[in-house]
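Morning F.,

Quick status update on the modeling queue. The single chain you submitted on Monday has been processed. Sequence for confirmation:
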Amino acid sequence: MTKKQRALEVIQRLKDEYPLAECTLDYDHAWQLLVEVRLAAQCTDARVNVVVQDLFAKYPSIEALAAATPEAIEEIVRPCGLGRSKARDISACMRMLRDEFGGKVPDTMEALLRLPGVGRKSANLVLGDVFGKPAIVTDTHCIRLCNRIGLVDNEKDPKKVEMALWKIIPPEEGSDLCHRFVMHGRAVCDARKPNCAACCLKDICRTGAKADG
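C-alpha cells below.
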C-alpha cells in the first residue's frame, strides 16, 4: 500500500468513525479564532473556551481588543498559561488587523503569517475553518498520528509534515481530516498509551500492525 492509498483509506475510515469534523474551539468570528488558537498553545481547548468568555464579553470586537493594554488582556488570559507573551501577541495582532487590514481577518497564508503570534498551524486553521480553503493543520495530534500510521516517516517538523501531506491528501479533505486526527488522538491514539485494539485503523497502521503482531 502506497502512502497515498493509505491516506485515502484513513480519510474514509475516520469519516465513518467521526462523521462530524468540527473545530473544538468555540468562536463566532474569524478574529476570535485567531485569539483562541494563540491561547491554545500549551493549553487545552476546553480551558480556552472558558477563559475567552470573559475576554470577549469585555472586548467584543477587534477594535475593542486592539484598544486594550496587553496588561489588561493578560489579567484575563493568565489561566491559559504564558499569559504575558500571549497577551502581547494578541494585542499586537488585533492592532495590526485594525490598522493594516481594515478590521478584517485576511484570507491568504501570506497575509496571515504577517500577524504577530500567527504561524502556519494557526493560519491553516483559519483558512480551512473560516474561509473553506484547502488547509492542513499540523498540530501535535496530526504529527503523532501521521508518524504512527505511516503517512510520514519519522518527521516531527510541522512544516515538513504539512508539505508531505499535501502530496498524498486531496486538498478538499485536509481541514476535516486534521480535525478527525484530533478526535481520534484524544479518543483512541493517545500519546502515551494508544488503544490499538480499539482502533479503526489498526490493520493499515504501521504501529498498530506491529502491536497486533
